[in-house]
Amino acid sequence: MLLKLSLTGIKARLRDYVVLFSGLVVASGIFYMFEAMATNKNFLENNSMISATVIIFHLGTVLLSIITFVYIVYANSFLMTMRQKDYAMFMMLGAKGRKIAQLIFIETFVVGVSATIVGTVLGVGLSGIVQQLLVQQLDIKITHFTAINSSAVLFTLIFFTAIFLLAAIVNAMTIVKKPILSLLRASETPLPANRKSVTLGLEVIAGILFLAIGYFMMAQVMQLAFLALIIALVTIILGTYLVFHSILIFVLALLKRCENIALKNLNSFTLAQLSFRIQDYTRILSMVAMLFALALGAITVGLGFHNEIMKMTEATTTYDLVLNNGQNFRSSDLQTIQATADIAYQQKEDADTIYYDRGQFDQTPFIAKEFGTGRKVKKIHYTGEQLAADATAADQLRSLELPEQSAKKHQFVTSEEFAALPGEVTQLRLITVADFMKDKGALKELANENFRKNPTLDKNMNGMSQKTLVYEMSNAVFSGFEFMGFFLGIAFLTMLASCLMFKILSGAKSDIQRYSMLEKIGTRRNLLKQSIRREIGILFLVPGLLGVTHVLFGLQMFKSLLSEPYNNLWLPFLIFFVLYFIYYLLTVWIYTGIVMKQKV
Protein backbone atom coordinates (compact mmCIF):
# COMPACT_ATOMS: atom_id res chain seq x y z
CA MET A 1 0.00 0.00 0.00
CA LEU A 2 2.81 2.42 0.88
CA LEU A 3 4.57 1.66 -2.40
CA LYS A 4 1.38 2.34 -4.34
CA LEU A 5 0.84 5.59 -2.42
CA SER A 6 4.44 6.61 -3.07
CA LEU A 7 4.14 5.95 -6.79
CA THR A 8 0.90 7.94 -6.82
CA GLY A 9 2.70 10.86 -5.15
CA ILE A 10 5.47 10.67 -7.73
CA LYS A 11 2.92 10.62 -10.54
CA ALA A 12 1.15 13.67 -9.11
CA ARG A 13 4.43 15.60 -9.12
CA LEU A 14 5.75 13.94 -12.27
CA ARG A 15 6.90 17.19 -13.89
CA ASP A 16 9.02 18.08 -10.87
CA TYR A 17 10.36 14.56 -10.47
CA VAL A 18 11.33 14.43 -14.17
CA VAL A 19 13.59 17.45 -13.65
CA LEU A 20 15.22 15.77 -10.63
CA PHE A 21 15.38 12.44 -12.43
CA SER A 22 17.09 13.90 -15.52
CA GLY A 23 19.69 15.69 -13.40
CA LEU A 24 20.46 12.53 -11.42
CA VAL A 25 20.68 10.46 -14.60
CA VAL A 26 23.26 12.82 -16.10
CA ALA A 27 25.22 12.98 -12.83
CA SER A 28 25.35 9.21 -12.36
CA GLY A 29 26.11 8.67 -16.06
CA ILE A 30 29.09 11.00 -16.04
CA PHE A 31 30.20 9.56 -12.68
CA TYR A 32 30.22 6.06 -14.18
CA MET A 33 32.05 7.29 -17.28
CA PHE A 34 34.86 8.76 -15.19
CA GLU A 35 35.22 5.56 -13.18
CA ALA A 36 35.05 3.31 -16.24
CA MET A 37 37.95 5.16 -17.85
CA ALA A 38 40.08 5.29 -14.69
CA THR A 39 39.56 1.74 -13.34
CA ASN A 40 39.84 -0.28 -16.57
CA LYS A 41 43.09 -2.10 -15.66
CA ASN A 42 43.59 -4.07 -18.88
CA PHE A 43 43.01 -0.92 -20.89
CA LEU A 44 45.54 1.10 -18.87
CA GLU A 45 48.21 -1.62 -18.78
CA ASN A 46 48.13 -2.06 -22.55
CA ASN A 47 47.94 1.64 -23.43
CA SER A 48 50.70 3.50 -21.64
CA MET A 49 49.94 6.75 -23.46
CA ILE A 50 46.43 6.87 -21.99
CA SER A 51 47.64 6.14 -18.45
CA ALA A 52 48.78 9.75 -18.15
CA THR A 53 45.12 10.79 -17.91
CA VAL A 54 44.16 8.38 -15.10
CA ILE A 55 44.75 10.76 -12.21
CA ILE A 56 42.81 13.42 -14.12
CA PHE A 57 39.73 11.20 -14.29
CA HIS A 58 40.06 10.29 -10.59
CA LEU A 59 40.23 14.00 -9.76
CA GLY A 60 37.08 14.54 -11.79
CA THR A 61 35.36 11.75 -9.86
CA VAL A 62 36.20 13.39 -6.51
CA LEU A 63 34.89 16.80 -7.62
CA LEU A 64 31.77 15.26 -9.12
CA SER A 65 31.14 13.27 -5.93
CA ILE A 66 31.22 16.39 -3.75
CA ILE A 67 28.94 18.42 -6.02
CA THR A 68 26.58 15.47 -6.56
CA PHE A 69 26.16 15.06 -2.81
CA VAL A 70 25.29 18.74 -2.36
CA TYR A 71 22.94 18.63 -5.35
CA ILE A 72 21.02 15.58 -4.11
CA VAL A 73 20.56 17.07 -0.64
CA TYR A 74 19.19 20.31 -2.08
CA ALA A 75 17.04 18.69 -4.75
CA ASN A 76 15.38 16.29 -2.31
CA SER A 77 14.73 19.02 0.23
CA PHE A 78 12.95 21.07 -2.45
CA LEU A 79 10.82 18.12 -3.46
CA MET A 80 9.95 17.49 0.17
CA THR A 81 8.91 21.13 0.44
CA MET A 82 6.51 20.65 -2.45
CA ARG A 83 5.14 17.41 -1.01
CA GLN A 84 4.87 18.47 2.63
CA LYS A 85 1.25 19.65 2.27
CA ASP A 86 0.33 16.15 1.14
CA TYR A 87 2.13 14.66 4.12
CA ALA A 88 0.36 17.11 6.45
CA MET A 89 -3.01 16.00 5.04
CA PHE A 90 -2.11 12.36 5.67
CA MET A 91 -1.23 13.24 9.29
CA MET A 92 -4.54 15.09 9.73
CA LEU A 93 -6.34 12.00 8.47
CA GLY A 94 -4.66 9.91 11.17
CA ALA A 95 -1.53 8.57 9.48
CA LYS A 96 1.20 7.74 11.98
CA GLY A 97 4.59 9.45 11.80
CA ARG A 98 6.29 6.09 11.26
CA LYS A 99 4.19 5.44 8.15
CA ILE A 100 4.84 8.94 6.79
CA ALA A 101 8.56 8.40 7.29
CA GLN A 102 8.35 5.10 5.38
CA LEU A 103 6.42 6.84 2.60
CA ILE A 104 9.05 9.56 2.24
CA PHE A 105 11.83 6.98 2.37
CA ILE A 106 10.27 4.91 -0.42
CA GLU A 107 9.66 7.94 -2.66
CA THR A 108 13.21 9.25 -2.29
CA PHE A 109 14.83 5.84 -2.63
CA VAL A 110 12.78 4.69 -5.64
CA VAL A 111 13.53 7.86 -7.62
CA GLY A 112 17.21 7.81 -6.66
CA VAL A 113 17.92 4.16 -7.41
CA SER A 114 15.92 4.27 -10.66
CA ALA A 115 17.85 7.34 -11.82
CA THR A 116 21.14 5.66 -10.88
CA ILE A 117 20.33 2.54 -12.91
CA VAL A 118 19.29 4.56 -15.96
CA GLY A 119 22.31 6.84 -15.49
CA THR A 120 24.67 3.85 -15.35
CA VAL A 121 23.25 2.59 -18.65
CA LEU A 122 23.74 6.09 -20.06
CA GLY A 123 27.28 6.05 -18.66
CA VAL A 124 28.05 2.88 -20.61
CA GLY A 125 27.09 4.73 -23.79
CA LEU A 126 29.09 7.80 -22.73
CA SER A 127 32.15 5.63 -22.09
CA GLY A 128 31.99 4.28 -25.63
CA ILE A 129 31.65 7.82 -27.03
CA VAL A 130 34.53 9.14 -24.93
CA GLN A 131 36.70 6.23 -26.03
CA GLN A 132 36.14 7.22 -29.65
CA LEU A 133 36.83 10.86 -28.83
CA LEU A 134 40.09 9.90 -27.10
CA VAL A 135 41.15 7.87 -30.12
CA GLN A 136 40.46 10.80 -32.43
CA GLN A 137 42.08 13.37 -30.14
CA LEU A 138 45.17 11.33 -29.29
CA ASP A 139 45.42 9.84 -32.77
CA ILE A 140 46.48 6.43 -31.48
CA LYS A 141 45.21 2.88 -31.53
CA ILE A 142 44.00 1.56 -28.19
CA THR A 143 43.13 -1.98 -27.17
CA HIS A 144 41.44 -3.87 -24.34
CA PHE A 145 38.84 -1.19 -23.76
CA THR A 146 35.33 -2.21 -22.72
CA ALA A 147 32.56 0.28 -22.03
CA ILE A 148 30.98 -2.10 -19.49
CA ASN A 149 33.18 -2.09 -16.39
CA SER A 150 31.91 -4.15 -13.43
CA SER A 151 34.03 -2.22 -10.92
CA ALA A 152 32.71 1.12 -12.15
CA VAL A 153 29.11 -0.17 -12.15
CA LEU A 154 29.44 -1.45 -8.60
CA PHE A 155 31.11 1.71 -7.29
CA THR A 156 28.52 3.96 -8.96
CA LEU A 157 25.59 1.97 -7.55
CA ILE A 158 27.10 1.85 -4.04
CA PHE A 159 27.94 5.57 -4.02
CA PHE A 160 24.55 6.79 -5.21
CA THR A 161 22.60 4.25 -3.16
CA ALA A 162 24.44 5.38 -0.03
CA ILE A 163 23.70 9.04 -0.79
CA PHE A 164 20.01 8.38 -1.44
CA LEU A 165 19.78 6.23 1.67
CA LEU A 166 21.18 9.11 3.72
CA ALA A 167 18.94 11.66 1.95
CA ALA A 168 15.86 9.51 2.51
CA ILE A 169 16.59 9.18 6.23
CA VAL A 170 17.21 12.91 6.64
CA ASN A 171 14.05 13.82 4.67
CA ALA A 172 11.91 11.43 6.68
CA MET A 173 13.18 12.67 10.04
CA THR A 174 12.82 16.34 9.03
CA ILE A 175 9.21 16.07 7.84
CA VAL A 176 8.00 13.94 10.74
CA LYS A 177 9.38 16.32 13.37
CA LYS A 178 7.62 19.40 11.92
CA PRO A 179 4.19 20.45 13.28
CA ILE A 180 1.27 19.93 10.92
CA LEU A 181 0.50 23.67 10.76
CA SER A 182 4.09 24.45 9.76
CA LEU A 183 3.90 21.90 6.95
CA LEU A 184 0.64 23.36 5.65
CA ARG A 185 1.85 26.97 5.57
CA ALA A 186 5.60 26.57 5.00
CA SER A 187 5.56 27.65 1.35
CA GLU A 188 3.49 30.72 2.20
CA THR A 189 5.76 31.91 5.03
CA PRO A 190 8.85 33.50 3.54
CA LEU A 191 11.62 34.94 5.64
CA PRO A 192 11.27 38.68 6.26
CA ALA A 193 13.33 40.85 3.91
CA ASN A 194 13.12 44.06 5.91
CA ARG A 195 16.17 44.63 8.10
CA LYS A 196 17.76 47.59 9.78
CA SER A 197 19.53 49.94 7.38
CA VAL A 198 22.74 49.90 9.43
CA THR A 199 22.91 46.08 9.43
CA LEU A 200 22.13 45.95 5.73
CA GLY A 201 24.82 48.53 4.96
CA LEU A 202 27.44 46.67 6.97
CA GLU A 203 26.61 43.41 5.18
CA VAL A 204 26.87 45.15 1.78
CA ILE A 205 30.34 46.47 2.66
CA ALA A 206 31.41 43.10 4.09
CA GLY A 207 30.20 41.27 0.97
CA ILE A 208 32.16 43.52 -1.38
CA LEU A 209 35.24 43.32 0.88
CA PHE A 210 35.15 39.51 1.06
CA LEU A 211 34.88 39.21 -2.72
CA ALA A 212 37.75 41.66 -3.21
CA ILE A 213 39.97 39.63 -0.85
CA GLY A 214 39.02 36.38 -2.60
CA TYR A 215 39.74 37.76 -6.07
CA PHE A 216 43.08 39.15 -4.89
CA MET A 217 44.07 35.80 -3.38
CA MET A 218 43.31 33.96 -6.62
CA ALA A 219 45.91 36.15 -8.32
CA GLN A 220 48.45 35.27 -5.60
CA VAL A 221 48.29 31.47 -5.97
CA MET A 222 51.82 31.28 -7.38
CA GLN A 223 53.22 33.14 -4.38
CA LEU A 224 51.07 31.83 -1.49
CA ALA A 225 50.15 28.42 -2.97
CA PHE A 226 47.65 26.41 -0.88
CA LEU A 227 47.07 29.21 1.62
CA ALA A 228 45.79 31.49 -1.15
CA LEU A 229 43.34 28.81 -2.30
CA ILE A 230 41.93 28.32 1.21
CA ILE A 231 41.52 32.05 1.84
CA ALA A 232 39.99 32.59 -1.62
CA LEU A 233 37.52 29.72 -1.14
CA VAL A 234 36.32 30.95 2.27
CA THR A 235 36.07 34.63 1.38
CA ILE A 236 34.38 34.08 -1.98
CA ILE A 237 31.77 31.78 -0.44
CA LEU A 238 31.07 34.36 2.30
CA GLY A 239 31.06 37.20 -0.22
CA THR A 240 28.70 35.34 -2.53
CA TYR A 241 26.28 34.68 0.31
CA LEU A 242 26.33 38.32 1.42
CA VAL A 243 25.74 39.50 -2.15
CA PHE A 244 22.34 37.81 -2.13
CA HIS A 245 21.66 38.33 1.58
CA SER A 246 22.22 42.09 1.49
CA ILE A 247 23.29 43.64 -1.82
CA LEU A 248 20.41 42.16 -3.83
CA ILE A 249 17.90 43.26 -1.18
CA PHE A 250 19.48 46.72 -1.20
CA VAL A 251 19.22 46.96 -5.02
CA LEU A 252 15.58 45.77 -5.00
CA ALA A 253 14.74 48.43 -2.41
CA LEU A 254 16.28 51.12 -4.62
CA LEU A 255 14.38 49.91 -7.69
CA LYS A 256 11.08 49.95 -5.79
CA ARG A 257 11.69 53.58 -4.86
CA CYS A 258 12.45 54.57 -8.46
CA GLU A 259 9.04 55.50 -9.87
CA ASN A 260 10.18 55.43 -13.52
CA ILE A 261 10.95 51.73 -13.13
CA ALA A 262 8.55 50.51 -10.45
CA LEU A 263 5.40 52.04 -11.96
CA LYS A 264 5.99 50.77 -15.48
CA ASN A 265 3.73 47.87 -16.51
CA LEU A 266 3.87 45.17 -13.79
CA ASN A 267 7.37 46.00 -12.54
CA SER A 268 6.00 46.88 -9.12
CA PHE A 269 4.40 43.43 -8.83
CA THR A 270 7.57 41.73 -10.10
CA LEU A 271 9.78 43.57 -7.62
CA ALA A 272 7.31 42.78 -4.83
CA GLN A 273 7.42 39.09 -5.77
CA LEU A 274 11.22 39.09 -5.58
CA SER A 275 11.29 41.02 -2.31
CA PHE A 276 8.61 38.73 -0.86
CA ARG A 277 10.82 35.66 -0.86
CA ILE A 278 14.35 36.92 -1.53
CA GLN A 279 15.57 35.93 1.94
CA ASP A 280 14.40 32.40 1.29
CA TYR A 281 16.39 32.37 -1.99
CA THR A 282 19.70 33.48 -0.43
CA ARG A 283 21.23 30.04 0.05
CA ILE A 284 20.09 28.58 -3.26
CA LEU A 285 21.24 31.62 -5.26
CA SER A 286 24.61 31.50 -3.49
CA MET A 287 25.01 27.83 -4.30
CA VAL A 288 23.91 28.35 -7.91
CA ALA A 289 26.43 31.18 -8.34
CA MET A 290 29.25 28.97 -7.04
CA LEU A 291 28.18 26.01 -9.17
CA PHE A 292 27.83 28.34 -12.14
CA ALA A 293 31.43 29.48 -11.65
CA LEU A 294 32.61 25.86 -11.31
CA ALA A 295 30.70 24.72 -14.39
CA LEU A 296 31.71 27.62 -16.63
CA GLY A 297 35.25 27.51 -15.26
CA ALA A 298 35.53 23.77 -15.95
CA ILE A 299 34.43 24.18 -19.58
CA THR A 300 36.60 27.28 -20.09
CA VAL A 301 39.73 25.70 -18.61
CA GLY A 302 39.03 22.42 -20.42
CA LEU A 303 38.95 24.14 -23.80
CA GLY A 304 41.96 26.19 -22.72
CA PHE A 305 43.94 22.99 -22.22
CA HIS A 306 42.94 21.92 -25.73
CA ASN A 307 44.56 25.07 -27.09
CA GLU A 308 47.69 24.32 -25.05
CA ILE A 309 48.39 21.07 -26.95
CA MET A 310 49.76 22.76 -30.06
CA LYS A 311 51.26 25.67 -28.11
CA MET A 312 53.28 23.30 -25.93
CA THR A 313 54.36 21.29 -28.96
CA GLU A 314 55.51 24.41 -30.81
CA ALA A 315 57.32 25.72 -27.75
CA THR A 316 59.19 22.44 -27.22
CA THR A 317 60.26 21.68 -30.78
CA THR A 318 61.68 23.77 -33.61
CA TYR A 319 61.66 21.42 -36.57
CA ASP A 320 58.78 19.24 -37.73
CA LEU A 321 60.98 16.25 -38.56
CA VAL A 322 64.52 15.20 -37.64
CA LEU A 323 66.28 12.61 -39.81
CA ASN A 324 69.53 11.16 -38.48
CA ASN A 325 71.75 9.74 -41.21
CA GLY A 326 69.50 11.65 -43.57
CA GLN A 327 71.49 10.50 -46.59
CA ASN A 328 69.66 7.17 -46.27
CA PHE A 329 66.33 8.87 -47.09
CA ARG A 330 65.52 9.40 -50.76
CA SER A 331 63.56 12.33 -52.15
CA SER A 332 60.72 9.95 -52.99
CA ASP A 333 60.42 9.09 -49.27
CA LEU A 334 59.50 12.71 -48.56
CA GLN A 335 56.87 13.11 -51.26
CA THR A 336 54.09 12.45 -48.72
CA ILE A 337 54.79 15.78 -46.97
CA GLN A 338 54.83 19.37 -48.20
CA ALA A 339 58.22 20.54 -46.98
CA THR A 340 59.00 24.25 -46.92
CA ALA A 341 62.56 23.74 -45.68
CA ASP A 342 64.87 20.71 -45.89
CA ILE A 343 68.21 21.51 -44.29
CA ALA A 344 70.99 18.92 -44.42
CA TYR A 345 73.96 19.63 -42.14
CA GLN A 346 76.90 17.41 -43.14
CA GLN A 347 78.81 15.56 -40.44
CA LYS A 348 82.11 13.72 -40.10
CA GLU A 349 83.30 12.16 -36.87
CA ASP A 350 86.09 10.33 -35.18
CA ALA A 351 86.32 8.72 -31.73
CA ASP A 352 86.06 12.02 -29.82
CA THR A 353 84.72 14.74 -32.14
CA ILE A 354 81.88 15.52 -34.55
CA TYR A 355 82.86 17.90 -37.33
CA TYR A 356 80.41 20.23 -39.08
CA ASP A 357 80.84 22.44 -42.13
CA ARG A 358 80.65 25.94 -40.63
CA GLY A 359 79.71 27.46 -43.99
CA GLN A 360 76.42 25.55 -44.04
CA PHE A 361 75.39 27.10 -40.72
CA ASP A 362 76.42 30.56 -41.97
CA GLN A 363 74.26 30.06 -45.06
CA THR A 364 71.30 28.48 -43.21
CA PRO A 365 71.55 29.20 -39.47
CA PHE A 366 70.48 26.61 -36.93
CA ILE A 367 67.23 27.64 -35.20
CA ALA A 368 66.75 27.14 -31.47
CA LYS A 369 63.95 28.22 -29.14
CA GLU A 370 64.32 29.83 -25.76
CA PHE A 371 61.74 30.78 -23.13
CA GLY A 372 61.68 34.48 -22.40
CA THR A 373 59.73 36.48 -19.83
CA GLY A 374 56.04 35.75 -19.41
CA ARG A 375 56.36 32.24 -20.92
CA LYS A 376 57.00 33.75 -24.34
CA VAL A 377 59.08 31.63 -26.70
CA LYS A 378 61.53 33.27 -29.06
CA LYS A 379 63.47 31.83 -31.97
CA ILE A 380 67.21 32.41 -32.14
CA HIS A 381 69.25 31.82 -35.30
CA TYR A 382 72.79 30.55 -34.72
CA THR A 383 75.64 30.62 -37.26
CA GLY A 384 78.52 28.18 -37.08
CA GLU A 385 80.70 30.66 -35.19
CA GLN A 386 77.93 31.35 -32.66
CA LEU A 387 77.35 27.63 -32.10
CA ALA A 388 81.05 27.17 -31.41
CA ALA A 389 80.94 29.97 -28.82
CA ASP A 390 77.56 29.22 -27.19
CA ALA A 391 77.44 25.97 -25.23
CA THR A 392 73.67 26.24 -24.64
CA ALA A 393 72.92 26.47 -28.36
CA ALA A 394 75.33 23.60 -29.05
CA ASP A 395 73.43 21.48 -26.52
CA GLN A 396 70.19 22.04 -28.44
CA LEU A 397 71.95 20.82 -31.59
CA ARG A 398 73.34 17.87 -29.60
CA SER A 399 69.78 16.88 -28.52
CA LEU A 400 68.99 16.13 -32.18
CA GLU A 401 71.99 13.87 -32.71
CA LEU A 402 72.34 10.12 -32.21
CA PRO A 403 72.94 8.82 -28.64
CA GLU A 404 76.48 7.66 -29.46
CA GLN A 405 77.30 11.19 -30.64
CA SER A 406 76.09 12.94 -27.47
CA ALA A 407 79.41 12.56 -25.58
CA LYS A 408 81.58 13.87 -28.43
CA LYS A 409 82.86 17.40 -28.82
CA HIS A 410 81.70 19.71 -31.62
CA GLN A 411 84.06 21.26 -34.13
CA PHE A 412 82.82 23.77 -36.72
CA VAL A 413 85.41 23.98 -39.50
CA THR A 414 85.64 25.69 -42.87
CA SER A 415 84.40 23.97 -46.02
CA GLU A 416 87.98 23.27 -47.14
CA GLU A 417 88.95 21.79 -43.78
CA PHE A 418 85.77 19.71 -43.71
CA ALA A 419 86.48 18.30 -47.19
CA ALA A 420 90.00 17.36 -46.15
CA LEU A 421 88.86 15.37 -43.12
CA PRO A 422 88.86 11.58 -43.45
CA GLY A 423 85.77 9.52 -42.81
CA GLU A 424 82.28 9.01 -44.19
CA VAL A 425 79.95 11.99 -44.68
CA THR A 426 76.60 11.72 -42.89
CA GLN A 427 73.71 14.16 -42.72
CA LEU A 428 71.54 15.62 -39.99
CA ARG A 429 68.41 16.62 -41.90
CA LEU A 430 65.98 19.08 -40.29
CA ILE A 431 62.65 19.48 -42.10
CA THR A 432 59.85 22.01 -41.72
CA VAL A 433 56.43 21.59 -43.38
CA ALA A 434 53.78 24.11 -44.40
CA ASP A 435 51.00 22.59 -42.24
CA PHE A 436 51.99 20.28 -39.39
CA MET A 437 48.44 19.10 -38.59
CA LYS A 438 47.79 18.27 -42.24
CA ASP A 439 51.01 16.26 -42.62
CA LYS A 440 51.01 14.85 -39.07
CA GLY A 441 50.29 11.27 -40.14
CA ALA A 442 53.03 11.23 -42.79
CA LEU A 443 55.49 12.90 -40.42
CA LYS A 444 54.81 10.21 -37.82
CA GLU A 445 55.56 7.48 -40.37
CA LEU A 446 58.83 9.16 -41.34
CA ALA A 447 59.77 9.61 -37.68
CA ASN A 448 59.14 5.90 -37.06
CA GLU A 449 61.23 5.08 -40.11
CA ASN A 450 64.03 7.19 -38.65
CA PHE A 451 63.89 5.09 -35.47
CA ARG A 452 64.01 1.89 -37.52
CA LYS A 453 67.01 3.02 -39.58
CA ASN A 454 68.86 4.19 -36.46
CA PRO A 455 68.50 1.36 -33.89
CA THR A 456 70.43 3.23 -31.19
CA LEU A 457 67.62 5.78 -30.97
CA ASP A 458 65.01 5.11 -28.28
CA LYS A 459 61.52 6.61 -28.42
CA ASN A 460 61.37 7.12 -24.68
CA MET A 461 64.81 8.71 -24.44
CA ASN A 462 65.03 10.52 -27.78
CA GLY A 463 61.35 11.10 -28.54
CA MET A 464 61.52 14.82 -27.72
CA SER A 465 63.43 15.44 -30.94
CA GLN A 466 60.43 14.41 -33.06
CA LYS A 467 57.56 16.86 -33.14
CA THR A 468 54.88 14.21 -33.69
CA LEU A 469 55.88 12.35 -30.52
CA VAL A 470 55.95 15.59 -28.52
CA TYR A 471 52.48 16.36 -29.87
CA GLU A 472 51.20 12.94 -28.81
CA MET A 473 52.61 13.29 -25.29
CA SER A 474 51.12 16.77 -24.87
CA ASN A 475 47.82 15.57 -26.30
CA ALA A 476 47.70 12.61 -23.90
CA VAL A 477 47.96 14.90 -20.88
CA PHE A 478 45.93 17.91 -21.97
CA SER A 479 43.11 15.92 -23.57
CA GLY A 480 42.38 14.35 -20.19
CA PHE A 481 41.92 17.80 -18.68
CA GLU A 482 39.85 18.84 -21.68
CA PHE A 483 37.40 15.95 -21.37
CA MET A 484 37.23 16.26 -17.60
CA GLY A 485 36.44 19.96 -17.87
CA PHE A 486 33.77 19.45 -20.49
CA PHE A 487 31.90 16.65 -18.73
CA LEU A 488 32.22 18.21 -15.28
CA GLY A 489 30.91 21.47 -16.70
CA ILE A 490 27.85 19.77 -18.17
CA ALA A 491 27.23 17.89 -14.90
CA PHE A 492 27.51 21.05 -12.79
CA LEU A 493 25.28 22.97 -15.19
CA THR A 494 22.58 20.29 -15.02
CA MET A 495 22.67 20.30 -11.24
CA LEU A 496 22.70 24.06 -10.68
CA ALA A 497 19.92 24.71 -13.20
CA SER A 498 17.84 21.87 -11.76
CA CYS A 499 18.27 23.17 -8.20
CA LEU A 500 17.20 26.67 -9.24
CA MET A 501 14.23 25.22 -11.09
CA PHE A 502 13.19 23.27 -7.99
CA LYS A 503 13.32 26.37 -5.84
CA ILE A 504 11.32 28.51 -8.27
CA LEU A 505 8.72 25.82 -8.93
CA SER A 506 8.32 25.08 -5.21
CA GLY A 507 6.67 28.49 -4.80
CA ALA A 508 4.53 28.25 -7.92
CA LYS A 509 1.47 26.79 -6.17
CA SER A 510 1.23 29.74 -3.79
CA ASP A 511 1.47 32.16 -6.74
CA ILE A 512 -1.56 30.78 -8.59
CA GLN A 513 -3.98 32.91 -6.59
CA ARG A 514 -1.97 36.10 -7.16
CA TYR A 515 -1.85 35.72 -10.94
CA SER A 516 -5.50 34.65 -11.00
CA MET A 517 -6.52 37.83 -9.15
CA LEU A 518 -4.49 40.04 -11.51
CA GLU A 519 -6.13 38.40 -14.50
CA LYS A 520 -9.62 38.83 -13.01
CA ILE A 521 -9.14 42.58 -12.55
CA GLY A 522 -8.25 42.93 -16.22
CA THR A 523 -4.46 42.52 -16.47
CA ARG A 524 -3.52 41.32 -19.96
CA ARG A 525 -2.03 37.83 -20.16
CA ASN A 526 0.95 39.04 -22.16
CA LEU A 527 1.86 41.41 -19.29
CA LEU A 528 1.54 38.57 -16.79
CA LYS A 529 3.80 36.38 -18.91
CA GLN A 530 6.23 39.27 -19.26
CA SER A 531 6.31 39.61 -15.48
CA ILE A 532 7.03 35.89 -15.12
CA ARG A 533 9.86 36.07 -17.66
CA ARG A 534 11.42 39.05 -15.88
CA GLU A 535 11.12 37.59 -12.39
CA ILE A 536 12.62 34.25 -13.35
CA GLY A 537 15.12 36.02 -15.62
CA ILE A 538 16.48 38.00 -12.67
CA LEU A 539 16.78 34.83 -10.58
CA PHE A 540 18.78 33.21 -13.39
CA LEU A 541 20.74 36.31 -14.41
CA VAL A 542 22.08 37.49 -11.04
CA PRO A 543 23.88 34.25 -10.04
CA GLY A 544 25.00 33.91 -13.64
CA LEU A 545 26.65 37.34 -13.67
CA LEU A 546 28.30 36.70 -10.31
CA GLY A 547 29.47 33.29 -11.52
CA VAL A 548 31.01 34.87 -14.64
CA THR A 549 32.83 37.39 -12.42
CA HIS A 550 34.18 34.53 -10.30
CA VAL A 551 35.45 32.80 -13.47
CA LEU A 552 37.10 35.90 -14.91
CA PHE A 553 39.08 36.42 -11.71
CA GLY A 554 39.55 32.68 -11.11
CA LEU A 555 41.38 32.19 -14.41
CA GLN A 556 44.29 34.00 -12.76
CA MET A 557 45.01 30.74 -10.92
CA PHE A 558 45.69 28.92 -14.20
CA LYS A 559 48.35 31.26 -15.55
CA SER A 560 50.98 28.73 -14.49
CA LEU A 561 49.27 26.00 -16.54
CA LEU A 562 47.80 27.97 -19.45
CA SER A 563 49.88 30.37 -21.51
CA GLU A 564 46.80 32.43 -22.44
CA PRO A 565 43.94 31.62 -20.06
CA TYR A 566 41.77 34.45 -21.43
CA ASN A 567 42.21 33.55 -25.09
CA ASN A 568 39.00 32.78 -27.06
CA LEU A 569 36.74 33.06 -24.00
CA TRP A 570 33.74 33.67 -26.23
CA LEU A 571 33.53 30.00 -27.29
CA PRO A 572 33.07 28.32 -23.86
CA PHE A 573 30.93 31.25 -22.70
CA LEU A 574 28.68 30.90 -25.75
CA ILE A 575 28.31 27.13 -25.31
CA PHE A 576 27.50 27.52 -21.63
CA PHE A 577 25.04 30.39 -21.99
CA VAL A 578 23.10 28.62 -24.74
CA LEU A 579 22.59 25.61 -22.44
CA TYR A 580 21.82 27.89 -19.47
CA PHE A 581 19.26 29.83 -21.54
CA ILE A 582 17.52 26.59 -22.51
CA TYR A 583 17.05 25.81 -18.80
CA TYR A 584 15.68 29.33 -18.29
CA LEU A 585 13.12 28.86 -21.07
CA LEU A 586 12.14 25.46 -19.65
CA THR A 587 11.62 26.96 -16.19
CA VAL A 588 9.50 29.80 -17.57
CA TRP A 589 7.38 27.33 -19.53
CA ILE A 590 6.76 25.02 -16.54
CA TYR A 591 6.11 27.91 -14.12
CA THR A 592 3.70 29.61 -16.53
CA GLY A 593 1.81 26.36 -16.99
CA ILE A 594 1.34 26.09 -13.22
CA VAL A 595 0.33 29.65 -12.28
CA MET A 596 -1.77 30.52 -15.33
CA LYS A 597 -4.73 28.44 -16.40
CA GLN A 598 -5.26 27.85 -20.08
CA LYS A 599 -8.05 29.86 -21.70
CA VAL A 600 -11.15 27.86 -22.48
Automatic annotation (TrEMBL):
Residues annotated as domain ABC3 transporter permease C-terminal: 62-179
Keyword Nucleotidyltransferase carried by entry: no
Nucleotide-binding is among the record's keywords: no
Subcellular location: Cell membrane
Top-level taxon of origin: Bacteria
Main subcellular location of this protein, as a coarse class: membrane
Keywords: Cell membrane, Membrane, Transmembrane, Transmembrane helix, Transport
Family annotation (InterPro entries): ABC-4_Integral_Memb_Prot, ABC3_permease_C, ABC_permease_BceB-typ
Transmembrane regions: 14-34, 54-79, 100-130, 150-176, 197-218, 224-255, 284-305, 483-505, 536-558, 570-591
Membrane topology designation: Multi-pass membrane protein
Pfam families named in the record: FtsX (PF02687)
Family designation: Belongs to the ABC-4 integral membrane protein family.
Protein name: FtsX-like permease family protein
Organism: Enterococcus xiangfangensis
